[in-house]
Amino acid sequence: MEFKKRLKIRLQTAIFYVVIGIILILANIVKHDEMMSTFGILFLVMGIARIVQYKRITKDEESIRRQEIIETDERNIALWTNARSQTFTVYIMLAAISIVVFYILKMYYIAKIIGLMLSAFILIYWICYYIISKRY
Amino acid sequence: MLVRVKDYRKGYKVTQDELANAVGVTRQTIISLENGRYNASLQLAHKLAKYFGVAIEDLFVFDEEE
């Protein structure tokens, strides 16, 4: 996909975040639910930050080209992929340790929830592996 | 693998920034390549070889013993 098109989609997503944020903040006024306003502020800040980022990137052709190089640079892509893969490994290890800890602390329900999440993650991993292996 | 990008770049009197712009990568990638910390993809190796007008094996000398 062309980079400028991708930037446009990014802007649309940011506007969507802002709208969701405003809706949640307004919903808090009606429903008095603090959780809603927290998520609302979160979405609003995230959306505004992305809009500011979009404005910064698209201020001239040179900065668009520079950003495109950064995002398509093969070393950067390798770093991001590697970081994601290591995050997954660390997450799996921490989840496995926490299951044991919660089990020892007799907090079986939490241990079970984490166990289920861990199983889901591993299942998703195998599905992704299968799909990606079909591509290459 | 012996990477001779730095030799060619200096021979052609090109800065890392100029080379990075010419082949569409960041300057950091060129630095990592020159230091031997990063192995270029076949696509990047081809672009670099084309830029310097040499063969890929002139830029990246594979050491069989490695």
Structural summary, described in words:
The complex is a heterodimer of chains A (136) and B (66). Chain A is an all-alpha fold and 136 residues long. Helix content of chain A is 91%, strand content 0%. The longest helix of chain A is centred in the middle third of the chain and has 31 residues, at 74-104. The mean pLDDT of chain A is 93. Chain B has a two-stranded antiparallel ribbon. Helix content of chain B is 58%, strand content 6%. By secondary structure, chain B is mainly α. The model of chain B has no long low-confidence stretch (mean pLDDT 92). Chain B has helices at 5-11, 16-23, 27-34, 42-52, 56-59, and strands at 2-3, 60-61. The N and C termini of chain B lie close together (7 Å). Chain B is built from five helices and two strands. The chains are: A mainly alpha (136), B mainly alpha (66). The A-B interface holds A 69-70, 72-76, 78 and B 20-21, 24-26, 28-29, 32, 38, 40-41, 43-44.
